[in-house]
Amino acid sequence: MNTYLQLLVFGVLASAGNLLGGLLITRKSRTSKARLRYLIALGAGFMLAAVFLEVIPEISEQWQGRMLIPMALLLAGYLLLQLAEHTIAPHFHFGEEVHTHEMVRRGVAASAVVALSIHTFFDGVAISSGLLTSFRLGLIIFLAVFLHKIPEGFTVASIVLSSGRGVRAARNASFLIAGATFAGILTVSLVKPAVIYTLPFSAGVTLYVAASDLIPEVNHGFDSHNHDHEHKHDGTDHGGKLTSLLVFAGVALFFLTQQLLHMAIGE
Question: Is the distance from CB of 96 to CB of 222 less than 8 angstroms?
Fold first, then answer.
């Protein structure tokens, strides 16, 4: 399959994950929320393993061991999301937004949507950078990104609903971040020589998503937000042992994917 056709297919699938997450917000069942949390945990483990065991070694090979510049770019990508999600948008977390009193303040919800759009744009950059390097790397990064695409769509729709807007506005917000994902893919495909720089930068973004967005949600659980972060340590396993174990399952899934790709394409 032509590389640009592969980018188109991966872009459509990744964007569809955002749209599906936006649709799920209309379902208020505990089961769907629990499954979303499990998906976050699985994605966190897979993403961490992909960055450290696949992407960084590839970056080192591209830069022939001269790691100062690429590691600076990786750090810059990490800090960009810190800026977007917790400076530009001071109230942001993955999962269902329950702080309605915060979201109805003028500009708070809009800034959170903008921050998540920046995040999803670099999801697209990561997929495109990987695929333009090799099919194997592109597929692994796509899988890592796709695993948290539904939670992204759910999150942005929840933010909009908490701000007092309706279901239509919530779904439009999920379309916005889906479009940002696709824009990230297209941008890198138009400047292919820049991949040597976009790969480490997007790896920093991916690392931030896994370590600073997803893992905290795994550890604290969505229910902790209902207590305005005043949860007392009463011995209750709010995150859930199963959810925590799914982080390790995500790492195991990464290794399984690696082995299957090695057998299938020999890279």
Answer: yes
Structural contact between residues 105 and 168, judged by C-beta atoms closer than 8 angstroms: no
Residue type at 249? A
- 157: nearest Cα among 224, 109, 207, 125: 109
Name the amino acid, one letter, at 96: E
Measured distance CA(47)–CA(26) in Å, rounded = 28
Alpha-carbon Rg for the chain in angstroms: 18
Cα angle: 125, vertex 73, 212; to 5 degrees? 75
pLDDT tens for 72-117 read: 999 999 999 999 888 877 666 665 655 544 544 556 778 888 989 9
Q: What is the residue whose two structure tokens read 């550890």?
A: 219
pLDDT digits (tens, 9 = 90+) for 26-83: 665 555 667 788 999 999 999 999 999 999 999 999 999 999 999 999 999 999 999 9
Q: Please give the average per-residue pLDDT across 156-177, as a whole number.
A: 87
